Amino acid sequence: MDKHPWLPNLSSIEDMLKEIGVNDIEDLFKDIPKEVRLNRLLNVGKGKPLSEYEIAKEIEEKSSKNVKLKVPPFIGAGICPHYVPYAVKFIISRSEFYTSYTPYQPEISQGLLQALFEYQSLIAELLEMEVVNASMYDWGSALAEAVLMANRINSRKTILVPENINPYHKEVLKTWIQGKGLKLEEVKYDRETGTINIEDFERKINDNTTAVYIQQPNFFGNFETEIEHIVDTAKHKKALTIMGVNPLSLGLIKPPGEYGIDIAVGDGQELGLPLNFGGPLMGILAVRWDMTLVRQMPGRIVGITKDMSSNIGFTLILQTREQFIKREKATSNITTNEALMAIANAVYLSLLGKEGIRELAEEIYYRSHYAAKKLEQIRGVKKLFNSDFFEEFVIRFPVNYDKIHEKLKKIKIQGGLKLSDFTALFCVTEVHDKDAIDLLAATIEEAINDVETS
Amino acid sequence: MDKHPWLPNLSSIEDMLKEIGVNDIEDLFKDIPKEVRLNRLLNVGKGKPLSEYEIAKEIEEKSSKNVKLKVPPFIGAGICPHYVPYAVKFIISRSEFYTSYTPYQPEISQGLLQALFEYQSLIAELLEMEVVNASMYDWGSALAEAVLMANRINSRKTILVPENINPYHKEVLKTWIQGKGLKLEEVKYDRETGTINIEDFERKINDNTTAVYIQQPNFFGNFETEIEHIVDTAKHKKALTIMGVNPLSLGLIKPPGEYGIDIAVGDGQELGLPLNFGGPLMGILAVRWDMTLVRQMPGRIVGITKDMSSNIGFTLILQTREQFIKREKATSNITTNEALMAIANAVYLSLLGKEGIRELAEEIYYRSHYAAKKLEQIRGVKKLFNSDFFEEFVIRFPVNYDKIHEKLKKIKIQGGLKLSDFTALFCVTEVHDKDAIDLLAATIEEAINDVETS
Amino acid sequence: WDEPLIFELSNNKGKQGILINKDERIRNEIKNMSIPKKLLREKAPELPNLSELEVVRHFIRLSQMSFGVDTGIMPLGSCTMKYNPKIEEKAPEITEEHHPLEDEDYVQGILEMIYELQNWFSEITGMDECSLQVPAGSAGEFAGVLMIKKYHETHNRQYKDEMLVADTAHGTNPASAAMAGYKVIYVKSNNEGLVDIDILREIVNDKTAGFMLTNPNTLGLFEEKILDIAKIIHSTNGVLYYDGANLNGILGITRPGDMGFDIVHLNLHKTFAVPHGGGGPGAGAICAKSELVNYLPYPIVEKVHGKYKLSKIPKNSIGKIATFYGNVGNLARSYVYLLGLGPQGIELVGKMSTLATNYLIAKLRDVKELELIAPNRPRKHEVVFSAKKLAETTGVTANDIAKALIDNGFYAPTIYFPPIIEEALMIEPTETEPKEELDKFANTLRKIVEMAKLKSENILNSPTNTAVKRLDQVYANHPSTITPTYRVLRLRREGKINYLK
Amino acid sequence: WDEPLIFELSNNKGKQGILINKDERIRNEIKNMSIPKKLLREKAPELPNLSELEVVRHFIRLSQMSFGVDTGIMPLGSCTMKYNPKIEEKAPEITEEHHPLEDEDYVQGILEMIYELQNWFSEITGMDECSLQVPAGSAGEFAGVLMIKKYHETHNRQYKDEMLVADTAHGTNPASAAMAGYKVIYVKSNNEGLVDIDILREIVNDKTAGFMLTNPNTLGLFEEKILDIAKIIHSTNGVLYYDGANLNGILGITRPGDMGFDIVHLNLHKTFAVPHGGGGPGAGAICAKSELVNYLPYPIVEKVHGKYKLSKIPKNSIGKIATFYGNVGNLARSYVYLLGLGPQGIELVGKMSTLATNYLIAKLRDVKELELIAPNRPRKHEVVFSAKKLAETTGVTANDIAKALIDNGFYAPTIYFPPIIEEALMIEPTETEPKEELDKFANTLRKIVEMAKLKSENILNSPTNTAVKRLDQVYANHPSTITPTYRVLRLRREGKINYLK
């Protein structure tokens, strides 16, 4: 191959070898034992370098093997379809941002640092918590890191988790705590309301409890109502409190800071990120104004400082927590995070502003309630829980949900997430209008009728 | 309306009015006679301000009312489908470029000026002509302006134009010259070769000829072979020579500069622009190193200069030709041009480079010849002209082309441009691969068989 | 930065920024080229050879040395540099992949959009019909003047060979009139900055083909006698032409059609938020009333039995101004802009831009060195200050003020225009600049004036914070040094070319 | 620029950067909210109120105060800051709109892509199977260490509680090992900068769970005794773990699997050109050989009767590392990168990046103040110079050199790493920087060293061309001044919070 647009020096090989003083590139690999040399081409890609035109065609072909849904999916489970403003896409496609690196050299990276600082600051206001890091991978891993933090702080071994939290987060949590030998204990939820069973919680919290985790709204979309009590009880038991939040819901409901929560986690996906088949997501992690907590935080944190001329500047702070300095004593091994997604969140929250976030949360509230109401109008269909909810909700059907899914599939609709044979979790946001919801309901009604008349 | 994302001052109206010292915005319009006040809302848009989400849906709805073709259209007539590299799109979506204005303030616009200077310079090398302006609207209007230039130089009234030039350009030319009372005289073409009939040309050129225009390759895609002779004759008659060129073809064939052409015109669409239903296009206009010509050029020109510290800098030059200074004595009324498209051309040519442009031109040559050959293998189908061609070519069919078009339409293919009942002009470029061409040919063959067996 | 020319980056070796896709199957079928030898290019063009990274990095660096509305306020008078909402960049999805000569059934979405826009612009201007054929404002003007010409010719009024133009008019007006073969007659303004009706009455006669006017004019003043003006022009069968460049300040408040104008052009890149692209591409519309609709450039989209067709050719059409149908990709951007504002938002454009102009004036009213003609009249889209007094007392000119503004991170206003105002600073804030930015701009202007009085050399030496300092215009334009392309630089170095003569 | 904080731009009034789409029909059906009152937010969050223009302009200005590979060379050692081809930005079209829990029939294109990538990365690493679940390199490492742990536990080797790590290793290696509960044992390098085999033999015992190694190591040196190392580790049933961060220099030349490694993680944002995004998101792969494939994180895509399914769960899987399937949007970018290079291009990545490193060394070989360990060994992806001598004679440290490079428009190398080299400058040029850029970089480095000797204060005071000068790290981290959010600044001003304690 004599030229390639991404390999600029193919025509300079001779010159460069001459400067080095060797005859062949092979000479630079003479320290690699012959036995481990590959000596053949790797069987990757499509057998030859593709031109950009051919690559574009491959991308389009792959896309065409997916199904373009008729309306956005009615499935959530923690990450939901939302409209992503063009300004967000535009800013994160600025290549000064997207081709840059962790800002180790602050003087030349003030813009990036300030953008990340603003992300931290916007989330801090949303959560009413003072310290936010510059991102984790996603909600699940942020939760896991929060639990590891708690364990480092109080050395206790059990993490108390309600059954009604996101099961995907729970899977991640289980994976991450196995190395340290922590145990996960589950608290039942009330079958009527879908919210935490307080008696069971009180029964299970004890002196081994490193932290209590609650999710608001919970996995079923229902609001937990006894948070104050849970926090009080945990404090009393000297366990830490960790709360997972849907950041958009905070346009309407009380933020973790108001409850005196120690560590808040969540996902910024709902603040301006596309679904992207589940990644990149955007793990949020925040703590109270407390040195014990701050010192144990994982990840990058940007702070304000001054330069030699007393000008305001931004820099990474508290770096002595991090792996590249503390190695095995670091608070986490995290290096690469989700910085660009944090910037997307910052742009999104700046566009929404104080009023916009409330308006959007309201719109989602109304639409999801409309959808639930509409579904409940179908004979035999009922909400599974009777407490109020936001964005997501569980519906019980009189027929196996597989039948409904099949019917929806015929018109390229993605319904809810099947939870059991007769229940499914639906997600409705500002991208689902009345027509889309009505179509969903009508199709489900048909599916039920089909089964019942067959 | 109390807020809108594009109207930042709705909440500051009171403050601003107070500063002005009036009570109502209406007071600022008191000089408008009551009789001409509108006093109602305009009936535009969709009756209310749409949210960005709703706008995006409208765009998608409009797109869905178009037909997504199975393969890129086989239609050209001067603008052709090509692959646009992502780097080109990326650069022209830099908002420092796309939201900027004509660089009247050079000190703060050096990047934009340099980019335009580089466009001029790259085109100069491609054409081998020394002076290029920073863009015209399109080929048609560039041609019209070239003819008006010629008229200003020699005051003659007839423009000699072969019948085989692009008829759309000819329509534009006719429109533009009517104000000055110029006449267009047409030269016949040879029915065998499709190229200019030299005898007819010699017959028609005379002392009233302000300029001779030729197009290379001509509208039929065929190469004109007698350009030297035409130029000599024109020079002898003291008429100017204007040549229209397909810039991509210059990767293979002789540029206008080598023929001693006075003014070259063309369209940069084939250098990195999408089709965009015919606009924005990108008019190229260049002249020889000759003050008489340069002084009569329309449009902006960027040149190199020095600043007060003798650093190299860029600025608009020869502005005394322009409308904002010379008013009715200006060389043209043009103000807004196609600057951003010029930058797209510059990026595209820089990516291609010296070798790339030849490779691309070759690929187009081979593909268009393959297509012609493949079509000629169908019984009764024949190329209309016997001279060599580039990218476009005329085919004669044994059945009315409408029948063929109908058949192609059934599988969402756009065939050639119908020239007469039995002929059509096809365009084949690097976006049409063998499969696409074979499908075209097979479908045409079927169409012909259908007619013949019906 | 100090970024070299792209030609200087190239090492003239086998680098290439993009791979060409080659269909080997076709190469196997067509083995040779049969181009006549004498047609072949002998020497490859002197294009640079660079990798993708080098090209991208080069142009990104150049972009960083540029200034757009996204970087800061660009208060260029008569240019209407408003914010271009980002969603507009989705609009070309409608048009991008379609060839203008495709079967109309393939492009119904595009045609519907054009059709709706034609109607909307007719409604906005108060005209009967619009053609969106014109790729920019000056092309629209040219079309308009040709329409006037053909209209008079059709009515055997060839004797009408004079076109009236206000002395405050944009340079394009006389230039367009001249391109159409008209003799240009300037109409002087009165001391209020408005058309002098008495002078107009005197000038208008049988030879008057028409009057090209902007309203509000380039001083930002509304011609309140517009109905009288229309009557005078129409009295000799003249045509009243509206230059739409200044429409922004009265959008939704009043319409050219209601004022008595017969033909209107619009600059969609000004009033309707198409990005200016560093000079272009823009987009335009040319609209007409009554009989004059018959002269509009073709084609116009019409709806026939529920299908959109590009078939409408006005019976006396002047022809085509552009090769195809105008800058359709940019029409789509305007379409999106109009969707986003809706009737309520559009009305506010006129109000809020006018508010912004008068607010800026109020913020500067105590700066005595910036004088106004007719200071008690409200402005519309823009305001023109004269820095004549400052220039006389300190030597600091409008140009110097412009350079000092640049040094402070603002773009400069339009200067030395209109020509009837000495040391003119023509400022158009538009409705999209927040009050806070207007405050900053006004404060900076005030400080510059103060500095000019205190220490004029500080202003005279600006800009100093820019990539280059003030540029040598003589060197730039002198026949011995003029360098319009790298080719000239190269050939001059090689001794192959000489003075431009 | 000197751009204010976004909170300071806001006038706290009714501005909003985006309109919320409201479905009035739904509002008519659902009239009230029924959220229990005690759950309601009492005070709206203190977010700024801004128009779209203000938000866009603010972040564009911030972007202009940033530096990416598109702006200039970023020779950060061990970070592999290569050019990210622009076509990669088309790749997320495949994934963008799809929810991870959609019916598999809806996402066959995505699954096919993941499946192909799994196979390609297995081929590239010489492993049997890969899971692309891990969103970044360190998550991959963590997964790898958990796999080792579970593997030993499954074989009842709980006594294996020590993880070996080279003293040149990336900090993530010991950190990951510690997170999995391992005791970390460092393996010293010999004076050639390579693993000291004798020491290794001594250290390895029954408690050795595994050895985490990069090859080439962080000095850019290839561990030529890698087969011996593997044998030693395997001799006690230890697992040899490959940290893929340094793969770039040997890509296509040799494979970890062939060297005897059992588990490999890849950083797709390094070797496979996913943009670094200012710190992330990246993407990763974790691959294993033989029995260890049973421990990979789930799910893995498999092909069943021609259909792709997310159904493969390795029988002893450690579980899930990320909430869904890793950073699939970025996997698509790597996919595009691999398509563009193909087998031939991939082979050249190793060759050309190694060539670039050794070229840079050659260009600097006469700068005596930049010393090399084992100077006669060829480097692979990167090189580490020691500026110790310079620091001793002039006081100019590696950090000062870094700041001086910044002042000259380059990004700085990684500094003070690996810890075994004093005053380390760790430089990784990658294969995408053109020779001309390497020449400029080398010349600048040379000039800085010369200036340090001549006039050290010039270097010690750098940077001066940047937005800010050197920053006060004490102020940044002190409990009384630490300011991690604007909220802290605000509450501190309001007297509502105190020292961080």
TrEMBL record, chains A, B:
- A GO BP annotation: nucleoside metabolic process
**Does the keyword field hold Oxidoreductase?**
yes
> What is a GO molecular function of this protein?
glycine dehydrogenase (decarboxylating) activity
Query: Which EC number(s) are documented for this chain?
Result: 1.4.4.2
List the InterPro entries hit by this protein, alphabetically: GcvPA, GDC-P_N, GDC_P, PyrdxlP-dep_Trfase, PyrdxlP-dep_Trfase_major, PyrdxlP-dep_Trfase_small
Domain (Glycine cleavage system P-protein N-terminal) ranges: 13-440
Subunit structure, as described in the record: The glycine cleavage system is composed of four proteins: P, T, L and H. In this organism, the P 'protein' is a heterodimer of two subunits.
Q: What does this protein do?
A: The glycine cleavage system catalyzes the degradation of glycine. The P protein binds the alpha-amino group of glycine through its pyridoxal phosphate cofactor; CO(2) is released and the remaining methylamine moiety is then transferred to the lipoamide cofactor of the H protein.
This protein is called what?
Probable glycine dehydrogenase (decarboxylating) subunit 1
Residues of the signal peptide: none
Instruction: Report the domain of life of the source organism.
Output: Archaea
